[in-house]
Amino acid sequence: MVRHLHKISDLSRAECELIINKAMEIKKYPGKYYKSLKHETLLMLFEKPSLRTRISFETGMQQLGGHAIFYSIKDSPLGVKENISDTAKVASRFVNIIAARVYKRQDIWDLAKYSSVPVINMLDDYAHPCQILGDFQTIKEKKGNLERKKLAYFGDAHNNVTYDLMRMCALFGWKIYVACPEAPEYTPELEVLSEVAELSKKTDAEVEVIHDTLDAAKGADIIYTDSWMSYGIPKEQEDARKKAFMPYQVTSSVMEAANTDAIFMNCLPAMRGFEQTAEVIDGPQSIVFDQAENRLHIQKAIMLFLRGKF
């Protein structure tokens, strides 16, 4: 059966750990894998731009012995000139993996429904599984294990990164406190909260959405934030968003409320003076560049997993 990766909860905890451990092995011994996907092709469909996602997948495929094709669908959207079902069926006959970075979750679901090869969600409005797997690889490297921890997230909670962080913490039985404004446009969707609640019943995870920054940070092992101005945010909304999120900015006071050995993460791009201060992101607790590097290693592991090459 063909496996796809829509969201992190498509995987079990055991499968997540398998992929993370493989990524760490690939990082340590890259030469062992330089022919693992020899003569295979990855098609990358980009509606939303990205520096890290494109480079990590394209470089990763090359380093595994395969070939990556970048195709922009920004000016030729999926499902307009041709049905997504036809696109998926045709592309499946040419390539071995399809990856897409799009605005709408339905486009990922439709691609996967009609594709006969694995489809990887490089990002949509509902999930960002590749990012979260890379994040947990980085946490394991820094903390030594992935046993129960507390992660505190700050800022925009109505977004893909927050959703998959919540799902992943629920899978692993962690605590995650999501600190965000009370307005519905900045808080998680009910569908996500319901899914996470069900996952948490099996693992005793604690997932809470709160509105006090220091309470969220208290006792945290990981402090995490994401961009306030994601791609597609209209210019005229920026001032209002900055005003809403400023109380949730990660400052030195927030870091001091966390555990003394807490690490700071941001999936990048980052704006100093917005989601975090410069002293935090450039400080000794920040691991954002190790976090970014691990996107390369985790993309390789994801592709090998979905292609059954472990």
Give an account of the 3D structure.
The protein has two domains: 8-128 and 295-306, 3-Layer(aba) Sandwich (Rossmann fold); 131-291, Rossmann fold (3-Layer(aba) Sandwich). It has helices at residues 13-28, 52-63, 84-92, 105-114, 129-143, 160-172, 190-203, 213-217, 238-245, 252-257, 278-281, 288-306; strands spanning 41-46, 67-72, 97-101, 119-123, 150-154, 175-179, 206-210, 222-225, 263-266. Helix 7 (190-203) links the parallel strand 6 (175-179) and strand 7. The radius of gyration is 19 Å and the shape is globular. The mean pLDDT is 96. It contains twelve helices and nine strands. Helix 5 packs across helix 12. The protein is an alpha/beta fold. It has a five-stranded parallel β-sheet with strand order 7-6-5-8-9. Strands 2-1-3-4 form a four-stranded parallel β-sheet, with helices on both faces.
Question: Any key phrases for this structure?
Answer:
310 residues, 12 helices, single chain, Rossmann fold, 42% helix, alpha/beta, 5-stranded parallel sheet, 4-stranded parallel sheet, 2 domains
